C-alpha cells in the first residue's frame, strides 16, 4: 500500500511540474505572442480573459464527469491537450489560429487543474498529514523551468515554436507514462459524494463560499503577476524585453521556497496562521511593486508576492477537502472555478485601471483584496471528520486504489 501511495504522489507531483512549465512558457511570452500575431493592446485583455472563461467551463464539465469517470482519467488525457495547445500557440501565424489554440488550452486546463487537485486532496487524506503544498511546490518548480526557458528564447531571439517544441516533446511522453501510477480517492467513486451533494445543494455552496472568495482574491493577485509583470517591468519600470521575463521567474522561485517549507509550517502552526501570514506578506509585496522606482525594487516586490501568495491556494483546496470529506471532488471542482474567476477579473481589471489611471495605482487593488483574506482565515481551521476528530485519517478505499487497477 505504501508503494502505491509513493508512486501516486511522485507521478502527481510530476503532473503539477509539467503544468507549471507549460503555463509559464505561455504567460512569460505574452509580449512575443502579441507581436507575432499583431494583437493590439486593446484586444489583448480579451484574449487573456477568454482563457480563464473557457477554463471555468472545463472545470464545470469536470465536476459532472467525475461522477462517472475517475479524476485520474481526466488528468491523463487533459494534460496532453494542454501541451499540444501550447505548441499550437507557437505554430500559427494568423489571429484565428492563436484564438483556437488558446481556446483549446483554456478548456483543457480547466479539467487539468480540477483533476490534479482532486487527486492531491485525496492523497493528503490517505497520508493523514499536510502534503498539498508539496504538489504546488512542484508546480512552482515547473514554472521556474518554463520561465527560464522563456528567458532563453527571448535572449536568443528564438521563435515561439522553436522554444515550445522541445519542451512538449519531453513532457508529453513522460506525462503519459507517469499517468499509469495516479491514485484515485474513493469518496466520490464510492457514491458518497452523490449522496452528500443531493442533500446539501445550496448549503454546500454557502459553506464553500468563504473559500471561493479567498481563491478569487488569491488568483486576482496571481494573475496580476503572471499576465502583467512582464509588461509592467518593460513599460513602467523601463526594463528590456529580456529582463521583463525575470519577474515571473523570481515570483516562481519564491513560491517554490515557500511551498517547500509550507507543509511543515502547517503541521507546526496550523493552516490559519500560515494563511494569515501569507496574506500580509503578499499585500506588502504589491505595495513595494506599486512604489518601485526601478526594476531592482520591483523584483523585491515580486519576491514578497511569491512568498505570500504561494501558501493560500493549496491550503484553500485542502480546506475544501476537509470541509466536505464525502464530496471532495465536487467541492474542489466548484472551488476551482473561482481560480478562473480571479483570473477573469484580475487581468482585465488591472489592464483597465492601468489604461484609465496608471499601472502603479492598479497594483493597489489586488493588494487590498489579498488583505481581505484575513477576514476569512477561520475557514481554514480543521473540520471534524466522520471519525469524530479534527485530523484526516487514511481510508482503506483511498489507499488501495490506483488508476491502473492496483
UniProtKB/TrEMBL annotation:
Start and end residues of each Major facilitator superfamily (MFS) profile domain: 208-406
Organism domain of life: Bacteria
Main location group: membrane
Organism ancestry: Bacteria, Bacillati, Actinomycetota, Actinomycetes, Kitasatosporales
Species, as recorded: Streptomyces triticiradicis
Gene Ontology molecular-function annotations: transmembrane transporter activity
Subcellular locations according to the entry: Cell membrane
Keyword annotations of the record: Membrane, Transmembrane, Transmembrane helix
Protein name: MFS transporter
Topology with respect to the bilayer: Multi-pass membrane protein
Xref: Gene3D superfamilies: MFS general substrate transporter like domains
Composition bias, Basic and acidic residues: 385-398
Keyword flag Heme: no
Transmembrane parts of this sequence: 12-30, 42-62, 74-92, 131-154, 160-183, 203-221, 273-292, 298-320, 332-353
Region (Disordered) residue spans: 385-406
Amino acid at each position: 500500500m505504501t508503494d502505491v501511495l509513493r508512486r501516486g504522489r511522485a507521478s502527481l507531483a510530476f503532473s503539477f511540474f509539467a503544468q507549471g512549465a507549460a503555463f509559464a512558457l505561455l504567460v512569460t511570452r505574452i509580449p512575443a505572442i502579441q507581436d507575432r500575431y499583431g494583437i493590439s493592446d486593446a484586444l489583448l485583455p480579451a484574449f487573456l480573459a477568454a482563457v480563464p472563461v473557457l477554463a471555468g467551463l472545463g472545470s464545470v464539465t469536470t465536476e459532472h464527469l467525475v461522477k462517472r469517470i475517475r479524476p485520474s482519467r481526466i488528468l491523463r488525457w487533459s494534460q496532453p491537450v494542454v501541451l499540444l495547445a501550447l505548441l499550437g500557440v507557437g505554430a500559427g501565424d494568423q489571429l484565428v489560429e492563436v484564438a483556437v489554440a488558446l481556446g483549446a488550452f483554456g478548456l483543457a486546463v480547466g479539467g487539468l487543474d480540477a483533476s490534479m487537485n482532486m487527486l492531491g486532496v485525496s492523497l493528503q487524506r490517505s497520508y493523514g498529514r499536510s502534503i498539498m503544498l508539496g504538489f504546488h511546490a512542484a508546480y512552482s518548480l515547473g514554472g521556474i523551468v518554463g520561465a527560464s526557458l522563456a528567458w532563453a528564447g527571448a535572449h536568443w531571439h528564438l521563435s515561439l515554436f522553436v522554444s515550445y517544441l522541445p519542451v512538449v516533446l519531453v513532457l508529453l511522453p513522460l506525462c503519459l507514462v507517469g499517468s499509469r501510477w495516479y491514485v484515485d480517492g474513493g469518496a466520490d467513486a464510492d457514491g458518497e459524494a452523490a449522496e452528500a451533494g443531493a442533500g446539501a445543494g445550496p448549503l454546500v455552496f454557502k459553506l464553500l463560499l468563504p473559500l471561493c472568495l479567498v481563491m478569487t482574491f488569491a488568483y486576482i493577485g496571481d494573475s496580476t503577476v503572471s499576465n502583467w509583470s512582464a509588461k509592467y517591468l518593460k513599460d513602467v519600470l523601463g526594463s528590456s524585453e529580456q529582463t521583463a521575463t525575470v519577474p515571473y521567474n523570481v515570483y516562481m522561485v519564491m513560491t517554490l521556497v515557500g511551498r517547500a517549507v509550507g507543509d511543515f509550517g502547517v503541521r507546526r502552526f496550523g493552516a490559519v496562521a500560515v494563511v494569515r501570514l501569507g496574506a500580509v506578506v503578499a499585500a506588502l509585496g504589491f505595495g513595494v511593486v506599486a512604489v518601485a522606482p526601478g526594476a531592482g525594487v520591483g523584483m523585491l516586490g515580486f519576491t514578497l508576492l511569491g512568498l505570500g501568495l504561494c501558501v493560500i491556494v493549496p491550503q484553500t483546496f485542502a480546506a475544501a477537502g476537509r470541509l466536505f470529506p464525502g464530496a471532495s471532488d465536487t467541492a474542489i471542482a466548484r472551488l476551482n472555478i473561482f481560480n478562473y474567476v480571479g483570473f477573469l477579473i484580475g487581468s482585465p481589471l488591472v489592464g483597465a485601471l492601468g489604461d484609465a489611471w496608471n499601472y502603479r495605482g492598479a497594483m493597489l487593488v489586488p493588494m487590498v483584496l489579498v488583505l481581505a483574506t484575513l477576514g476569512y482565515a477561520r475557514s481554514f481551521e480543521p473540520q471534524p471528520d466522520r471519525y469524530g476528530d479534527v485530523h484526516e485519517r487514511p481510508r482503506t478505499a483511498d489507499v488501495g486504489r490506483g488508476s491502473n487497477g492496483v
